[in-house]
Amino acid sequence: MLRIILVAFCISLSLAIYAQPVLPYKDPRLPVEQRVKDLLARMTPEEKFWQCFMIPGEIKPGDEAKYKTGIFGFQVSAGSKGGNAAEQLLQYNATDDAKALANKINAIQKYFVESSRLGIPIIAFDEALHGLVRQGATAFPQSIALGATWDTAMMSKVANAIALETKQRGIRQILSPVVNLATDVRWGRTEETYGEDPFLTAQMGISFVKAFEQKGVVTTPKHFLANVGDGGRDSYPIHYTDDFLAETHLYPFRELIEKGGARSIMTAYNSVNGKPSSANDDLLISTLKNKWGFKGFVISDAGAVGGSLVLHNTSKDYPQSAEQVMNNGLDVIFQTDYDHYKLFMPPFLDGRINAARLDDAVSRVLRIKFELGLFEDPYVKVEDIDKYINMSAHRKIAQDAAAASFVLLKNQGALPVKKTTGSIALIGTDAVEARLGGYAGPGVNKISILDGMKKKMPGVKISYRPGYDRDAKGYAVVPARQLKIKGEYFDNPSFAGEPVLVRDDKQINFHWTLFSPDDTKLKKDNYSVRWTGQLTSPLTGKIRIGVEGNDGFRLFVGGKLIIDRSVKQSYHTIMADMPVENGKQYDIRLEFSEPAGNATVKLIWDVNARDEWQKKINDAVAIAKQSDQVIVVAGIHEGEFQDRAFLTLPAHQEELILALAETGKPVSVLLVGGSAIVMDRWLERVQSVVMVWYPGDAGGDAVADMVTGGVNPSGKLPITFPIDESQLPLVYNHKPTGRGDDYHNLSGLPLFPFGFGLSYTSFQYSDIRLSSPVMNMGDKITVSCRVRNTGKVSGSEVVQLYIRDELASVARPVLELKGFSKISLTPGEEKLVSFEINKDMLTMINAKHETVAEPGMFRIMIGSSSRDLVLKTDLELR
Questions:
Q1: Is the peptide bond before 221 cis (omega within 30 degrees of 0)?
Q2: What contacts 839, CB < 8 A, 6 or more positions away?
Q3: DSSP assignment, residue 736?
Q4: Which residues of the chain, if any, have pLDDT below 70?
């Protein structure tokens, strides 16, 4: 009887436990929308705020209580330890390998799932533009190089590899890709893009996004919108019509959402038609969410919300900035520090943010967290990392992608290197640096061009010389160890009265663009500074000392005025000779005034011999004379907020190339960088030029294969290379001019056009055919041609399809890329290449702002670049 009673009791207890109600939002059997609605109804205003707030970081010792109300997610930092209640969860070896990071993210996730009030999991996010920006992750060629492959299948392989390395670490959102159009190659972020063309950008972006989204990693195309403005300057304001934006800058974003499945978007720093991008209801609500039906969430770029106050002057304070962005369509505020919540939380709690708009924002975040399965399966399976991440296979993909990206710009027989070559002079620091480009991690076993060539050509004597210092200016900021300086800061530009601030400054190296030297005491556009103190010489002889910065400065040494740019005019770097003795102290005084704002001031010197750069060139020339062939690896400096006024090679590299050409030896130039380079001074003096971009971890091997002929260059330019900066902006798909394209003293044509790229072999195009010369609105027709390899080696060619509307109700571009196909051909082989043309490829926005396809004639053009369209025919749309 007792046994029966016990059994009955156990059954009763089991039924009671089973009957415990499961909260609807935790029930995976319910539809996602029902779960979102239930969870949203349980949230406090504070909890809603935290789902709209993302930061880099983690749970630090003693911080557990801060996160009881949850958070959107973290860009988890590397190797920090936890403590207190979470100590057992968060103490891991301070490394960044995949397993350590996965364990760390799991531990942080466990805290939020088990210890926050509602158990809402986080989204761990990171950058993955051309490889996850993490220790131990493969670095693939930079985005512009991937664009230069013109190969969506290759892009898919690259993206799948990155997605695997990302998800297996527990990262479920990447702040990539960049699908802005590089319409001005002075822009420092050109390297991050897929080029200047909307169609090419969209096709490459779709392949990238699909790979991640299909694996359950949210992609975040950026920056919404058009964050390169006048002069090629980053985040400059733009003023474009809605129709122009729809056909150009908006097009890739819409394609990536509708065809790629992107579930997040990042706004830009700039303003668009007078409204900051993060608070632009025309873009975020009217276009993105209403017109396109976007269901994902929109995040700001890091710190961009405060930009409404600091940059654009459209809000009175930080709380109002938050109010404006949320009410105008932003969903998540991305900041760089936890404590910034104090600046932006108030309007979430006091009702200034529309309740329905706030609930919409939070719902978008929760919806994706449910879609990702984070509520049911919040943890990454660390044991699967070895199973799914094949680093050797990924490295092979990286090498293949690099090889497919190289663009041969000129070749007069110097490449590939002949088998009879016994010695090569390899010149240039980029030959040994193995630079990866912007938004890259440290890479894995990076191989330089020098190492790659030595491995590939063991029987060839390769002699390396640096030749130049790419970043050398010939001067440096005077270091703190040589200075003892006191600064007196005045609240006027004329040094009048008593200083409002006196402090010791370690160096004079200031860049006060958005703020004043001290916002509590000085206005950013009305102050002056007098620095006085001593400079200690490190040598005996003659140095040069000076000032770089905004005019409005005077420099005194030993009481004597040696530099005077006191009249506010421009920006200058002025230096003067100064005899010195080693260890001796010299009195200096630098006066700087700023009545306008946006100031820079640096005390600089040159303690090296003036002819240092010439010595490096002479050394390179000497070794070149002893070699059979010369290969120069030249590079540029660029990056985020590193726009280039000049597109020439920096740091006397042009002088280096010209000097090497004078030796009479065959000279090949390999260009490392992510944007256009002007080369009018030296192009005709060298035999070969190849754009190798930033080729990634295995770039050295890929370059060596190309140099020796194991790889035939097949890349095509995704941007236009100008002859001179004065032609910019210069893109192939502009609209017709009212007169001509040329200048009085310069052609309007580029140095190398969009789509250009040579090969070690040659290709012949022939036999263009339309399946029908007439197409009705609902029909599809096919255009085809034949391409033959007429050379002696195998190669790949990118066959490009362009279309022009011959007669339209509004002006249309002179050319528009509408299709491309990369094919491989052996010597003598011929292939039939076909493209399908449908009505959507012929649409335009008319004067009534309607998207239509107008009946009429269209010019169909096929060729190897936008300037080499050898096949043409006409199609009538009825």
A1: no
A2: 775, 777, 778, 779, 853, 877
A3: P
A4: 1-20, 78-96, 608-611
pLDDT at position 3, please?
53
Question: Which residue(s) pair with 785 in the sheet?
Answer: 833
Q: Tell me what pLDDT residue 164 has.
A: 97
**Nearest residue to 331 (alpha-carbon basis) of 317, 316, 348, 343:** 348
Residue 472: predicted pLDDT: 74
Distance CA 32, CA 35 (A): 5
Radius of gyration of the chain (CA): 30
Instruction: Indicate if the alpha-carbon torsion angle 840, 846, 848, 849 is positive or negative.
Output: positive
What is the maximum alpha-carbon separation in the chain?
A: 111
Give CA–CA dist 64/112, Å, rounded.
10
What DSSP state is assigned to residue 285? I
φ/ψ of 74, rounded to 5, equals -125, 150
Estimate to the nearest angstrom the gap between the alpha carbon of 51 and the chain centroid.
27
Cα distance between residue 224 and residue 245, in whole Å = 11
DSSP state, residue 145: H
The answer to whether 589 and 531 are in contact (CB under 8 A) is yes
The whole-number pLDDT of residue 18 equals 46
How far is 179 from 255, CA to CA, in rounded Å? 11
* 406 vs 404: CA distance, rounded Å: 6
Based on the number of CB atoms within 10 Å of its own CB, is 808 exposed (0-12), middle (13-18) or buried (19 or more)? middle
Alpha carbon distance 797, 825 (integer Å): 8
The H-or-E segment that residue 152 falls in is helix 152-167
Residue 611: the pLDDT is 65
**DSSP designation for 120:** P
Residue 78 has a pLDDT of 67
d(CA 756, CA 758): 7
Residue 21: predicted pLDDT: 85
Q: DSSP readout, 419-479?
A: TT--EEEEE-THHHH----SS----SS---HHHHHHHH-TTSEEEEE----TT--S-EEPP
pTM of the model: 0.93
Phi and psi based region of residue 809 (left: phi greater than 0; alpha: psi -120 to 50; beta: remaining): alpha
Q: What is the pLDDT of residue 812?
A: 98
Distance of CA 134 to the CA centre of its chain: 16
Contact 297, 267 (CB under 8 A): no
Taking a C-beta distance cutoff of 8 angstroms, is the pair 181, 733 a contact? no
Angle at 296 between CA 294 and CA 297, to 5 degrees: 115
pLDDT at 862: 98
The pair of structure tokens assigned to 404 is: 């497919």
